[in-house]
């Protein structure tokens, strides 16, 4: 039953209204306005506007630069991360990641987008003594990491252009792409391929591959990736693991969101 159905069957109880509204905002997958949400949650305009204001004040929503639309705020994003890391899901996620890490032989990660970069929410380390230390909770840049580029490439073109236009393209290594036109071309290529790579762009001597984890509507909500030192794995050999990454991402998607 969706929010509109609940409203038609006697209305949404006041205590559930904030949750129903957040559910519909998350389902939309794009910035929304109170007007957008009125029909979807079947509540009066003043009520929806009041809920938006309260959720913004409490950090569950945040206003976009246009001043009209809203996206999930820090508290809602943290809530999502904590749900993904709940005990049962964590056990299943780690089991799947362990299997992937053993087959590839390198560290594997699940990451989710935050306002300033990608945050690692799950991770299984390689058994090799030579490894890159990026623990759970680490935030990494969008423009020079495989997971970040996988996320950016999933954005609609108009939103992507605005997003990249506002990014600070800091050089983290000699290979970091700092030209916006070149980065846009890289992201278009990643979109066509369905995967993204980091060719020593974040850390010199480290490469990475990432694929999106999508919900049943095809929307990316997190990424699956692995990274490796170039002393152990070259870029071409890393690309050969992309089909395995995709299959594992599909398994994780089914576990995390089911068929909705």
How does this model look, in words?
By secondary structure, the protein is of the alpha+beta class. The chain folds into two domains: 3-71, Winged helix-like DNA-binding domain superfamily/Winged helix DNA-binding domain (Arc Repressor Mutant, subunit A), CATH 1.10.10.10; 77-257, GAF domain (Beta-Lactamase). It is 47% helix and 17% strand. The protein has eleven helices and eight strands. It has helices at 3-8, 17-28, 34-41, 45-57, 74-84, 87-104, 146-153, 157-166, 180-193, 235-239, 242-257, and strands at 61-63, 70-72, 107-113, 118-124, 139-140, 196-199, 206-214, 220-229. The strands form two sheets. It has a six-stranded antiparallel beta sheet with strand order 5-4-3-8-7-6, sandwiched between helices. It has a two-stranded antiparallel sheet with strand order 1-2. The radius of gyration is 20 Å and the shape is globular. The model is unreliable at 1-10 (pLDDT under 50).
CATH superfamily of the largest domain: GAF domain
Mean pLDDT: 85
Q: Secondary-structure element sequence?
A: HHHHEEHHEEEHHHEEEHH
Reported for the largest beta sheet, the result is:
6 strands, antiparallel
Largest sheet, spatial ordering of strands: 5-4-3-8-7-6
Give the overall silhouette: globular
CATH class of the largest domain: Alpha Beta
How far apart the termini lie comes to 11 Å
